[in-house]
Design brief:
heterodimer, A: alpha/beta, TIM Barrel, 27% helix, B: TIM Barrel, eight-stranded mixed beta sheet
């Protein structure tokens, strides 16, 4: 009996630690949608050591894992600029400003939703703090390396730091109504941002004075104020939860006052109203295809939003903000063809190179280009077709999803005491805002 | 009328007895006045014919053990008894080093829950409101009469590292001996570390794991800055402001200076990685505590040289319906659950195989299940030798007391566990526990139950009495023991 126990345990161990983080694979004879060099029919793509090494016809290499992509579509791994999967905490909803918290501290590599996203061809997602606070917290760009045990292996190393801001009803409801403090109105929202930036400025100045010997008592260390200073120093990209046009303009004014020019507005349902202003500021937009009316400030919306923004020169992506939508982002992108007649390339950019630019990772992912990461999604039927089904999803040259090897229950971490499969405990749809996860409804 | 309050082993039982019976009881039950305040200090104790276990994988050695002044004076065959020695013939009972709980809440009185004033703004609580109290030592809460002490001791624990329960940083831990009748005398080392956990502070900042991690960074950096500032001030007081005192900051300075570790409760693999990230970034000494998934993070435990305490808690094995009633999907799920269950049981065995040292912590598990669960771990591949070391020598080294505790060796404290058979035998029972020379007898436990029957009053122990004799009040103490039946 004893031996039996030991052997099984060790076998599992071996599986878990052999999960590599980069690999080699040759994809043969596919239709490549490169996103930067057009469509290439019957072409091979070679990934070595996690990087795209060669794109050509009839590549000859031996001793390598091969995928026959005859009749299949090969595109860059899909990127979701707004999600909350792979993390154990979304909202530190106690204070309107919590710039110091970081969801990268709470990575959960065993979250089955990572696998679910892979099943939709998504290889990179932006795990974000929620929208309970005006300045919520820092986010983490993750690679969907399903199977790794170490949370650190989910991180996309060297991806720029990003931070979540939020406008409108959520922070007002949580803090104004919930705690009777500022912000209780949209006017208050503006002051919360200004105060936080002022605090960051003062903090930077205080430390500079202490370090130069001008003062002798060290200022109280505050990661919150340090983070605000880092934003003003251009070290952190802002991703701001937003709906209404007036507030979007307000925040751009605030940022201008503090010399901050890198911002991506998230949701931005009224973005179509201020598209030229966004383009002028250099702000980008990450939108839903056709989801709105889940609260008052989200009624004035249109499914043409992505197309209008794109046509006005605003760099635009389509995101999921949902564990379910992330499974079919390619379908969400296709809606921009019905609503706005975007071209295939324009539509696919919404879920590949555009979100990559918004996350500051376009030098590594977003197109099928020699030297970039080996992140690839392979589809049966064109990804913008309603009949599209993902066949393989490859991250850094490792096949993380294979349609033919997709078993009943792919979870990594089993609770030996669970009585029902945890997956069914949370049936979810688009009933409420997942940006408010972890916050008690008032 | 006379009232006597029980101060013995069972704190909870407070009873009234009539004065009339007192003298009679004294005669029949061999009661004595408690003049011998510290029973372990002077008397010798000779354990005859003990099977001394040095290595639980090997056959024990038949020896006598002479204990003087609480320490192991001699271990040899046929020791002749000194004139003052109490002799206990163990008649081939097994003798193990006393177990050490590397982390626990033993002996800590429960704090009375006061109605906290409602905190209006959640975002900026005081450290105390947020459950951050590293300055809290066990001194205010340790109580020699706390019922958990007897529970731990009767399960073989002779020494324990203990800390108050709570939220994010609960307090400073101390090493205590499971003996004596004075709370202060239990304390061996009052500062062994601070205890932290990824636990929500409830309704105030930090509510979440991400807030908790950020708060740790602030606390640590401020303690570090304070430490430097205090140094500067002491060398050159005229050139800098007086450092502002702060409870939490001051209590964390030894952590910053690496004189004490942080015992971090890391029940699952993710928490282990998170605590390690903090350690790596900030630089404190870390002890992974209450681990239940260390097998998930094996590379971490192996490569980073962090001390590891495994939980004594194991998952329950769930009894499922008959296989034929299940769908294929349910059968597959059951298979995975069974594999997971085995992994939890085999955690200790796997660490042993990897050459990773470990001990046990007693935070979530029940000490009464210690033996049952150790046996499950042994069945899953853990060697008895390693199991015993994890309960004795390893924690002694971790807590830096191995010169005096942790093994049966001449000169060390006489902390022993005596069992009627191999401890690792399912049916064996603990018969005696010796803590720094003080003998605790569990050999009559069972008979007592059968002899006294239901409703019998357990009067054994030390009692405070208050008597009114001829109108004059007198107080004192009596110890009541049952007479040896043999």
């Amino acid at each position: 009996m004893k031996k039996h126990f030991t052997i099984i345990a060790i076998a599992l161990f071996a599986v878990s630690i052999n999960a590599q983080d980069h690999g080699d694979v040759l994809i043969q004879n596919g239709t490549l949608i490169t996103m930067d060099d057009g469509i290439m029919e019957k072409t091979d793509l070679l990934i070595r050591n996690g990087k795209i090494e060669q794109i050509a016809k009839d590549i000859e290499v031996s001793n390598i894992k091969t995928i026959d992509a005859t009749g299949l579509y090969v595109m860059p791994g899909i990127i979701d600029a707004h999600s909350h999967l792979g993390i154990d905490a979304v909202n530190e909803a106690s204070n309107p400003v919590t710039a110091e918290v970081w969801v990268g501290d709470a990575l959960d590599p065993y979250d089955i939703n990572i696998y679910r996203a892979l099943a939709g061809g998504v290889t990179v997602s932006h795990a974000m703090h929620g929208s309970a606070n005006a300045i919520g917290g820092q986010c983490e760009t993750i690679k969907h390396r399903w199977g790794v045990m170490d949370p650190n292996e989910l991180r996309m190393k060297d991806a720029p730091r990003t931070i979540k801001f939020a406008l409108g009803e959520n922070p007002i409801r949580v803090h104004g109504e919930g705690q009777s403090i500022v912000p209780n109105t949209r006017m208050g929202m503006e002051q919360v941002f200004r105060q936080a930036f002022e605090d960051g400025k003062k903090y930077k100045k205080d430390w500079a004075e202490y370090n130069s010997g001008k003062t002798t008592t060290p200022p109280t260390y505050s990661l919150r104020n340090q983070t605000m200073a880092d934003i003003m120093d251009g070290k952190i990209l802002i991703h701001c939860h937003s709906y209404r046009a007036d507030e979007i303009l307000m925040l751009m004014d605030v940022l201008e006052d503090y010399g901050v020019d890198q911002i991506c507005f998230q949701h931005v349902n009224e973005g179509f109203k201020v598209a030229p202003e966004l383009a002028e500021f250099g702000a980008s937009a990450s939108v839903f295809s056709d989801w709105w009316a889940y609260k008052f400030e989200v009624y004035y919306s249109t499914a043409y939003n992505a197309a209008i923004l794109t046509k006005n020169g605003v760099l635009t992506s389509i995101n999921s903000d949902s564990r379910e939508l992330i499974r079919h982002l390619y379908h969400e992108a296709a809606k921009s063809q019905k609503y706005g007649k975007l071209s295939d390339e324009e539509a696919l950019k919404l879920i590949t190179i555009n979100p990559a630019i918004q996350l500051g990772i376009d030098d590594r992912v977003g197109t099928l280009t020699k030297g970039k990461d080996g992140d690839v999604a392979i589809f049966k039927n064109h990804p913008l077709s309603i009949y599209a089904t993902p066949q393989y999803t490859i991250v850094d040259g490792v096949i993380r999803f294979d349609y033919n090897e997709d078993m009943d229950d792919m979870r990594l971490d089993f609770d030996p005491e669970e009585t029902i499969p945890a997956f069914y405990e949370r049936s979810e749809g688009h009933h409420h805002d997942s940006c408010l996860e972890g916050v008690h409804q008032h | 009328m006379t009232s006597i309050s029980h101060f013995g082993y069972y704190l909870m039982k407070i009873r009234n007895l009539a004065l009339l019976g007192l003298i009679c009881y004294s005669c029949s039950l061999n009661a004595q006045i408690d003049y011998d305040k510290y029973p372990n200090s002077n008397k010798s104790l000779l354990l005859k014919n003990a099977l001394v276990v040095y290595d639980a994988n090997k056959t024990p050695t038949l020896q006598d053990i002479l204990i003087k002044k609480g320490k192991l004076d001699r271990i040899a065959s046929n020791i002749s008894a000194p004139y003052d020695a109490k002799i206990v013939d163990l008649d081939s009972m097994f003798v193990y080093p006393g177990f050490i709980a590397a982390l626990s809440h033993v002996g800590i009185k429960k704090e009375e829950e006061k109605d906290q004033p409602k905190i209006k703004f959640q975002g900026a609580p005081t450290n105390k409101q947020a459950g951050i109290t590293p300055e809290k030592t066990i001194k205010s809460q340790l109580d020699v009469n706390e019922s958990s002490i007897e529970k731990f001791r009767s399960n073989g624990i002779t020494t324990a590292n203990t800390v108050a329960p709570g939220k994010m940083i609960t307090g400073t831990s101390a090493l205590v001996s499971m003996s004596g009748d004075q709370t202060q005398r239990m304390i061996i080392n009052e500062t062994t570390g601070v205890f932290s956990q990824f636990k929500s502070s409830g309704n105030v900042y930090p509510k979440t794991i991400i807030g908790n991690m950020a708060k740790w960074r602030d606390l640590y950096h401020n303690a570090k800055n304070a430490s430097n500032h205090i140094k500067n001030f002491s060398t050159n007081p005229s050139l800098t402001d007086r450092p502002a005192y702060d409870d939490a900051t001051t209590a964390l300075i030894p952590v910053v200076n690496n004189t004490i570790p942080v015992f971090f409760k890391t029940s699952n693999a993710k928490e282990m990685y998170r605590a390690y990230e903090l350690k790596k970034e900030l630089g404190f000494n870390l002890v992974f505590s209450e681990c239940r998934q260390a097998w998930f993070a094996k590379q971490l435990t192996k490569n980073v040289g962090v001390n590891t305490l495994l939980s004594i808690k194991l998952p329950k094995e769930i009894k499922e319906k008959k296989e034929e009633d299940l769908t294929d999907e349910q059968k597959k799920l059951n298979q995975k659950k069974k594999e997971a269950y085995r992994n939890y049981l085999a955690q200790a065995a796997l660490l042993e195989k990897e050459g990773i040292g470990f001990s046990f912590s007693f935070i979530d598990g029940k000490v009464s299940e210690l033996k049952k669960n150790i046996l499950k771990m042994v069945e899953a591949g853990l060697s008895k030798k390693k199991a015993l070391e994890a309960l004795s020598l390893y924690p002694a080294k971790l807590l830096k007391i191995d010169r005096l505790y942790g093994s049966i060796q001449q000169g060390k404290y006489a902390n022993l566990v005596v069992t009627d058979n191999d401890y690792f035998d399912e049916k064996s029972k603990i018969k005696y526990v010796i803590v720094e020379g003080e003998l605790f007898d569990y050999s009559t436990k069972k008979e007592k139950k059968s002899n006294t029957g239901e409703g019998a009053i357990d009067i054994e122990g030390t009692w405070d009495y208050e008597a009114e004799i001829f109108g004059q009040a007198q107080t004192g103490k009596v110890t009541v023991e049952t007479a040896d039946e043999e």
